[in-house]
Amino acid sequence: MPQAPADAATRRAVAPVICYPNDTLPAPDLALYHAAREGAAKVAEVVVPPREAACFRVGAGQFFRISSVEGPQVGDLNLWNADDLSERFYSGKTRALHGTHVTTGERLWSSFPHLRPMATIIADTLDWYGIDEFGGSVHDVIGTRCDPYTGNLLSGVQYHHCCHSNLTRALADELGVSLAEAEPHVHDVLNVFMCTGFTRDTGQYFMKASPVRPGDYLEFFAEIDLLGALSACPGGDCSSEHTSDTAACFPLLVEVFAPAPGALEGWQSPPPNGYDRSHGR
Ligand SMILES: [Zn+2]
Question: Are strands 41-48 and 252-258 parallel, antiparallel or unpaired?
Fold first, then answer.
């Protein structure tokens, strides 16, 4: 290892700067969303079976709630523009804008060149958790999704109920296309209810038992027409392992709610990003 320079301590002591100060982000009108949610009626529900995934559709201006039922369970969420699957949830940029974990008032942003809010979190019953002494928190945008390729790389297994495969099957069934056609649309997820962080000593991605209990939920306002897919992770509460059938797994519930007519007076579905895409030419 090269020797540290004489001023190493000084260089390390430089204070960090936030990469993307987010105080200029357009703020969601949570009061309007909550008022609209008060009078909203349930229009659909989907139960996601353990170690499987299911698709659901939410119109712009509607709400969807993901709930823990029966037992602690983590969910891997994909979102697409229902009319254009090339616009999809951008986990990395959401992380850059809001941090490693998301909660009420924060938004799920879409991929380039769209980069607009797809959904806004309006309620999170696990908001109380905060950041624990290990640096862990809930609902992360740092993990990617459990997948059979990494499982094969690390331990040579052929396991078919990782979230990646669950999402692929669910999307193929929803669209009526082959697995090969569906798979490239599956993308990095929002890890709903998952408790994760990075170890301070080695910087490694860690997970620990989710604090979620039946009755807990994460609720969203759909800013654009959405196609969603949610996988009930084979890791269950992700307290020990995934990519196997070892963990206790439970279903997840997705419910869709439509507001009363006129309840969103003044709200408009966000337009695509304003960059002109000339890229300097
Ligand atoms: Zn998973």
Answer: antiparallel
Between the CA of 174 and the centroid of ligand 1 the distance, in Å, is 20
DSSP 231: E
Ligand 1 centroid distance, CA of 209 (Å):
14
pTM for this model (two decimals): 0.95
Which residue, chain included where needed, has tokens 């624990």?
A: 132
Strand partners, 217: 67
What spacing in Å lies between the alpha carbon of 123 and ligand 1's midpoint?
23
Cα of 143 vs centre of ligand 1, distance in Å, is 9
* Rounded Cα distance, 54 and 252, in Å: 10
At residue 219, the 3 state secondary structure works out as: strand
- Say if residue 185's pLDDT is above 80: yes
Distance 145 CA to ligand 1 centre (A): 5
Does residue 225 contact residue 59 with C-beta atoms inside 8 Å? yes
Q: Domain boundaries in the chain?
A: 43-258
Give the three-class secondary structure for 147. Answer: coil
Rounded to the nearest whole angstrom, what is the distance from the C-alpha of residue 194 to the centroid of ligand 1?
A: 10
Ligand 1 centroid to residue 1 C-alpha, Å: 37
Least confident of 17-31, 64-78, 92-106, 170-184: 17-31
Helical ranges in the chain per DSSP H: 8-12, 30-38, 91-98, 148-155, 163-175, 179-182
For 8-63, what is each residue's pLDDT tens digit? 999 999 999 988 888 888 889 999 999 999 999 999 999 999 999 999 999 999 99
State which amino acid sits at residue 269.
S
- If you measure from the C-alpha of residue 146 to the centroid of ligand 1, how many angstroms do you get, rounded to a whole number? 4
* Cα dihedral 266, 115, 173, 74 in deg (nearest 10): -90
Pair of tokens at residue 27 = 């703020």
